[in-house]
Amino acid sequence: MTKPHPYNSAPAHNFWRRSVAELDPGLVDPVVNFPIRIDSDMRVATAGSCFAQHIARYLRNSGFNYYVTEPGHPILPESVRTKNNYGLFTARYGNIYTARQLVQLVERAYGSFAPAESVWQEADDVFLDPFRPSSQPGGFITKLELELDRAQHLAAVREMLETLDVFVFTLGLTECWVSRHDGSAFPVCPGVEGGAFDPDRYMFYNQTLDDVIADMTKFLMALARVNPKAQVILTVSPVPLAATARHDQHVLTATTYSKAVLRIAAETLAAQFHHVAYFPSYEIITGAFNRGGYYAPDLRNIVESGVSHVMGLFMKHATISQTEVQAEKDEPMRGTGQSDAYFEMVQHVVQVECDEAALDRP
Amino acid sequence: MTKAVIVGQSHTVCMSAAAAATPGWGQFPVYRVRSGDKLSDPDALSNDQAIDLVRKLNENVDVFLSIPGTYHNILGLVRSRLDFDFFLNPEDRLLDLDYLVPRRVITSAFDMHLETEALVPKLKGVAAGRVYVLACPPPKQDNAFMMQRLLAKWNKPYRGQDIAACGLNRPELRRKLWLIECERTKFWAESMGLDFLHAPHAALNDEGFLAEQYYAEDATHANEDYGLLILKLVASVTNQNKGLLK
């Protein structure tokens, strides 16, 4: 007879064989007791790296209140707004890869930080915002146009922060390029998507675990100041680094370092703050159970089946479906069915916009 | 012998009227292509009929198309809930505004609209002669005139917007949008090997709007005097071509 020990009574999800190795890959579900539940009225804002675009897309297509505070002018057809990156995220900030970028975005929105480098001029009539160089295709025609659009953008960021219910942020990278002058963090190395690289002006910085936790804590405190009810869902992008700036490192080990730091930071923050939760999309995509099947042939991009797996579980654990809302109204007991919205999700692959991929452009 | 035909949508009406009303100016057949169904517009050509017509023309007949224009009205005729403005040129001064639309966003709106225009490439594909794209008429400046005609004739929403409640946009906004439409249509036409013809300069007032003597009795169209200016433009271009060919 087996002697009692803590594992005797542990649930199935504690065991690798039962909850990972022996399951059909599509049935692996690493989400346990997810604390945040989104209903269709809650305003869900998104930001982060390329993978966050998938979350935005699924929320938008699943009947949830995907919150957009910078939708573009209503006179423009949606196709035009989409082409110009309105609605890609809640505001037109483009990819936010690092915690440093995120906290600086908030500081810029509230005027507590004004980067010395405010514009990159590429041609007589092409001006780029260094902090979202890809957001306006073709750039702005004058510095003034850029500044006016930026003022609108930062107002939309403030509106987002002050009025959202749930903020979903995908941590993407630890590696970043910053200004030597004032520490401004750029989304992509100057010279890649705009600007000109100058080693006297820019330096590479690889954030440590303490950096990420400190930056995210600063962000969470700032968010709480303007919106005490806001809840935050953190994810870690499963997309590997396109390139590392660390010449002493292979891109594979650099990726492992980066993702490990971000994963631990997310865990730490979720443990520290009751309104913060970690959703394990990283594990769903990178887990050995799928034998790499959720990666495209380039081993970076995520195929639709992987995104579907992640978002199916997101809908199951992090949302209250319309069916459940009705059931809650009709009966005291909550229904347990999977979200109807999940079955209506679009299946086609959407090419996500990823500035980082430009690092390896021939 | 016919040297040119004109094919287009509603802006051809003023040209047909001019051809019918002006002695000596009936040499350019004007064909209108319907935008809706046959029942609602039985006199106009279907797209297929227009393609057949152009296919049968020989290489000595120039084709003038008045087709993709007037998107500036869709974007800028009726005032939106959120007043907007944009820089047409870097040196522009903007009016007080609620919202700035970046220039390249506006540009892409016209480009994406033009990408949906399927008839012009088809006509180009079957035409043996040269094909030209005509600019749509310049916008009118007189908002009161336009509003009165809109309410009298339409009494219904324009492109889904309640005109009486919304009002019309500033004339200058319409003019800037029209200029962008001309710029993008020219670029689009030339990318297909077509020539673009600007609106006759004589039709403009000092501020770049359609001069009042060319107003049709509605908000967006020009009258037969403007149509005659277009016929003269067509004649000028065609005669120049034929001269060059000799």
Give a description of the structure.
In chain A, the strands form 3 sheets. Chain A has a 4-stranded parallel sheet, sandwiched between helices. Chain A has 11 helices and 9 strands. Chain A has 362 residues and is an alpha/beta fold. Chain A has one domain (16-113, 157-360): Rossmann fold. Mean pLDDT of chain A is 89; it is low at 325-353. Chain B has a domain at 4-70 and 107-140 and 177-245: Rossmann fold, CATH 3.40.50.1110. Chain B has a 5-stranded parallel sheet, sandwiched between helices. In chain B, strands 4-5 form a two-stranded parallel sheet. Chain B is globular and about 55 Å long. The two termini of chain B are 16 Å apart. In chain B, 41% of the residues are buried. The model of chain B has no long low-confidence stretch (mean pLDDT 89). At the A-B interface, α3 and α5 of A face β5 and α4 of B.
